């Protein structure tokens, strides 16, 4: 498999491969912060356009390509928030066409937030994950869960509360 | 398959165009017979970016609230006045609230989104989260209050130091955070206790500071000018004015208010107000 550096130094097809490799991560980054699939797609387009324009300046000795790309993503997001509109200067310079998203594309971007939640849930300690799944997804009562998990109701409540707090912190929804 | 195949195609196409541009001119000449390139500037729909909403600005601490008029939040009204920020983004707005006894009114400024006054999480405020945080009349945010005349013809003028573009003017030691003014020689002007307190408070970037001048010139005002910006006064809003400028060293700003009877009121500072009608 070619490295990110090789893809960035390669031809147009190599850059498309670089995009495919990092699309989900950048889309997810923006989606988490703006909460809208359309805006996340727009911000992602500008991020990759900037990376394309600046890829010859990427220096692997100063850090990996992922960190470099996320630096660009953060910069695009903060400048867009400051200006109150999604930046599009580089896309204009590169004569890129605006994105037109249909419902299917929006749904596919929105999946990313579910995937992030699922991943965060999987990373919880087993006892908390089972308590959160049982209470929030399967909608069991605390008493039923206490029986299933062979512990007291107050322990279940504590696990659910700790689990949700950890999820909120991980998903950035408690800011 | 990617989630945005259209974007992948556009990026590949743009990358190919960049490669063509980077080829030496003699190769272009041989290949395309001296082709000329015209880059079409594609019109993009400027996507309106509503900031995600965060927690409201925290309320002022009880000891501070005790010294403030007892405001009636039900009377809060965002005036129709808007001022552009020199750096772009959400416009600035001005709101008024009356106290419960109806004797006093207070004005507040901030950034406006979706008909609400608030502050932006930037310049150290709300950990720079980039969100919009709504303001309530009893929030930890400075403002200015004045007597409420029986006919409702408001007169008020606020003067203060530049504030950050976040719009937050409350205490930077509050949970909302924020930035502080640059102090040239802190050892000479601040006690060790104060310096310790401010150690972790970031200094506001000069480019983030704004001169925000606001007030009400009364219903008789016709035209109001400040720092070279002129607005038409609206009698329905008691001649409300709001100017947001970048501070400039050595610039002396004067507020000029022209009234419908021909008189002009000039305010250079709080201590220098010519008689107004």
From TrEMBL, chain A:
| GO molecular function annotation | DNA binding; sigma factor activity
Which organism is the protein's source?
Solirubrobacter phytolaccae
Domain RNA polymerase sigma-70 region as annotated: residue spans: 18-83
Specify the RNA polymerase sigma factor 70 region 4 type domain's residue ranges. 115-167
InterPro entries, from UniProt? Answer: RNA_pol_sigma-70-like, RNA_pol_sigma-70_dom, RNA_pol_sigma70_r2, RNA_pol_sigma70_r4_t2, RNA_pol_sigma_r2, RNA_pol_sigma_r3/r4-like, WH-like_DNA-bd_sf
For biological process, the GO terms are: DNA-templated transcription initiation
- UniProt-listed CDD domains: Sigma70_r4 (cd06171)
Similarity section: Belongs to the sigma-70 factor family. ECF subfamily.
Which keywords describe this protein according to UniProt?
A: DNA-binding, Sigma factor, Transcription, Transcription regulation
Could you tell me what this protein is called? Answer: RNA polymerase sigma factor
Asked whether the keyword Repressor is assigned, the reply is no
PANTHER family, per database record: RNA POLYMERASE ECF-TYPE SIGMA FACTO (PTHR43133), RNA POLYMERASE SIGMA FACTOR HI_1459-RELATED (PTHR43133:SF8)
Does the keyword field hold Nucleotide-binding? no
Automatic annotation (TrEMBL), chain B:
The entry's keywords: Membrane, Transmembrane, Transmembrane helix
Keyword Transmembrane helix included in the entry's annotation: yes
The record lists the membrane-crossing segments as: 28-51
Domain of life of the native organism: Bacteria
Region Disordered, residue ranges: 54-86
Q: What is this protein called?
A: Uncharacterized protein
Q: What is the scientific name of the source organism? A: Solirubrobacter phytolaccae
């Amino acid at each position: 498999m070619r490295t990110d550096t090789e893809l960035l130094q390669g031809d147009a097809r190599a850059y498309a491969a670089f995009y495919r490799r990092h699309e989900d991560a950048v889309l997810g980054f923006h989606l988490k912060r703006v909460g809208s699939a359309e805006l996340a797609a727009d911000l992602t387009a500008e991020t990759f356009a900037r990376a394309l324009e600046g890829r010859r300046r990427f220096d692997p000795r100063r850090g990996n390509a992922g960190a470099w790309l996320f630096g660009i993503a953060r910069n695009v997001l903060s400048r867009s928030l400051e200006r109150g509109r999604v930046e599009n200067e580089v896309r204009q310079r590169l004569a890129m066409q605006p994105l037109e998203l249909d419902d299917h594309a929006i749904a596919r971007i929105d999946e990313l937030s579910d995937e992030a939640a699922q991943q965060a849930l999987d990373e919880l300690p087993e006892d908390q994950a089972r308590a959160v799944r049982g209470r929030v997804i399967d909608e069991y009562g605390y008493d039923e869960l206490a029986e299933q998990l062979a512990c007291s109701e107050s322990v279940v409540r504590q696990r659910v509360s700790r689990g949700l707090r950890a999820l909120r912190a991980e998903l950035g929804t408690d800011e | 398959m990617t989630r945005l195949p259209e974007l992948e195609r556009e990026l590949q196409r743009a990358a190919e165009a960049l490669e063509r541009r980077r080829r030496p001119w003699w190769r272009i000449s041989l290949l395309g017979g001296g082709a000329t390139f015209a880059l079409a500037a594609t019109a993009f729909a400027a996507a309106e970016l509503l900031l995600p909403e965060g927690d409201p600005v925290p309320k002022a601490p009880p000891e501070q609230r005790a010294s403030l008029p007892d405001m009636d939040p039900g009377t809060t009204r965002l005036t129709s006045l808007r001022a552009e920020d020199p750096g772009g983004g959400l416009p600035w707005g001005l709101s008024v609230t009356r106290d419960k006894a109806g004797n006093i009114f207070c004005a507040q400024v901030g950034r406006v989104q979706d008909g609400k006054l608030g502050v932006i999480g930037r310049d150290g405020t709300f950990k720079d989260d980039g969100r919009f945080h709504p303001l309530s009349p009893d929030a930890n945010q400075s403002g200015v209050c004045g007597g409420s005349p029986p006919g409702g013809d408001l007169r008020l003028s606020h003067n203060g130091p530049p504030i950050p573009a976040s719009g937050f003017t409350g205490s930077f030691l509050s949970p909302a955070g924020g930035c502080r003014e640059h102090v040239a020689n802190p050892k000479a002007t601040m006690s060790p206790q104060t310096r310790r307190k401010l150690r972790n408070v970031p200094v506001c970037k000069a480019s983030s500071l704004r001169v925000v001048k606001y007030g009400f010139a009364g219903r008789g005002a016709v035209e109001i000018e400040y720092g070279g910006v002129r607005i038409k006064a609206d009698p329905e809003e008691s001649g409300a004015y709001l100017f947001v400028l970048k501070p400039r060293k050595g610039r002396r700003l004067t507020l000029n208010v022209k009234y419908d009877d021909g008189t002009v009121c000039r305010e250079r500072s709080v201590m220098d107000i010519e008689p107004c009608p």
